[in-house]
Design brief:
By secondary structure, this protein is α/β, with parallel strands linked by helices. It has 2 domains: 94 residues, Beta Barrel (Elongation Factor Tu (Ef-tu), domain 3); 140 residues, Nucleotide-binding domain of ferredoxin-NADP reductase (FNR) module (Rossmann fold). Helices cover 18% and strands 33% of the residues. It has a 7-stranded antiparallel beta sheet. Helix 4 packs parallel to helix 5.
């Protein structure tokens, strides 16, 4: 699994695709290492990366690789705060600092289990590159509304649930998961999304004895495990650092998914 050296790289934006409420940022990285599905990068705009009168710098933003094609990295973004707002403002030709790939990615299915991809909101990003690697996988995606459901186009043939019923199933994406597992529970779940979705999936998989790998998200400052800002409690005691022990962590290693350990809805 590729790991970035200790040093960020200044790269250029190759393009920006609008997907409803989301932006797909395409970054030219011809000399970079191909990421493993589930890995992430720390992103920082080259200019205007700060807030307040003194432009005090924001922390870098950890973003999962959504796709890697011919030396071009894709990142799915939603404007949810000052940092992501600045990244969403980037246009082709502008530059950003990139540190990645980082972290532990998804592991392949065992025992002929069928892969089910479970995503919510902007957390669908790492499932796209994983679907590319798996070739065949059932994709279940949940969104708040139709504008966000437009992001589903980065995956092939997904089943969609929306909170408001504007697209697909009206309700929670974990309801689609429960129906899939009722039909055939010889599966392995790969999930990324809001913490309540991840916790519901973890609990359901524990009840049915279905293995699951959860891609967590937590506030990070370094990406190398030095600052301990992204820890989550480990089953049986102790902590896991999302940036180096994850972001993909076996659900069996977690007592629960804390509220801070998920992607935006």
């Amino acid at each position: 699994m590729a790991l970035a050296p200790f040093g960020r790289r200044l790269l250029r934006v190759a393009g920006v695709d609008e997907l409803g409420a989301y932006r797909l940022l395409r970054v030219s990285d011809p000399d970079g290492s191909a990421p493993a599905p589930g890995q992430f990068a720390m992103l920082t705009a080259e200019e205007c990366w700060g807030g307040g009168e003194d432009e005090r710098p924001h922390l870098p933003r950890a973003c999962s690789y959504a796709r890697w094609r011919d030396g071009e990295a894709h990142f799915l973004l939603e404007d949810v705060g000052p940092g992501t707002n600045r990244l969403c403002e980037l246009r082709p030709g502008e530059s950003l600092w990139v540190l990645g790939p980082l972290g532990v990615g998804f592991r392949a299915p065992h025992d002929a289990r069928r892969p089910i991809l479970l995503g919510g909101g902007v957390g669908i990003a790492p499932l796209a590159i994983w679907q590319d690697a798996l070739l065949e996988a059932t994709a279940l995606l949940g969104f708040r509304d139709g504008s966000r459901a437009a992001g589903s186009t980065i995956l092939r043939d997904p089943q969609i649930a929306t909170d408001d019923g504007s697209v697909g199933h009206r309700g929670l994406v974990t309801e689609l998961l429960a129906a899939e597992l009722a039909r055939d529970s010889h599966a392995v779940i790969y999930a990324c999304g809001p913490a309540p979705m991840l916790e519901a999936a973890r609990a359901l998989c524990a009840e049915l004895d279905v293995p699951a790998q959860l891609a967590l998200e937590s506030g990070m400052a370094c990406g190398f495990g030095a600052c301990y800002g992204c820890v989550v409690p480990r089953r049986g005691g102790g902590y896991l650092r999302v940036c180096v022990d994850g972001p993909v962590i076996d659900a069996a290693e977690l007592e629960r998914v804390d509220a801070h350990a998920g992607a935006p809805a």
